[in-house]
Amino acid sequence: MRKFNITVNGTAYEVEVEEIKDGQPAAAPAAAVPAQPKAAAPAPKKAAAPAAAPVAAGTKINAPMPGTILSVKAQNGAQVKKGEVLLVLEAMKMENEIVAPQDGKVVQVNAVKGATVNTGDVLVVLG
Length: 127
What we know:
CATH superfamily of the largest domain: RNA polymerase II/Efflux pump adaptor protein, barrel-sandwich hybrid domain
Order of helices and strands: EEEEEEEEEEE
CATH class of the largest domain: Mainly Beta
Radius of gyration: 24 Å
């Protein structure tokens, strides 16, 4: 048996792990028990996430999937045509071009190169 301390969602657990040979455990597995918190080493506090910028009125172009912004081609105030590439989103090692769904003016660009986005995040707003 080997003992390990594991932290899940901020709660520390002490667990015992036993190697199984030939499909037969040597003894019944022990249940996970919350570990006693250590007073000398408090958990580091996470910094509060920055407040999201208010989204301008207009046609919102959302991230279709989670990924990383590789490049931003749209600029605030620029006129774009339907089908024009606004930015490139990398997801699962594929580059996906995010294009303008209509002609219009770029009112707001919320994406920056290198940023990680989630499905549904507003990337660009067209007016």
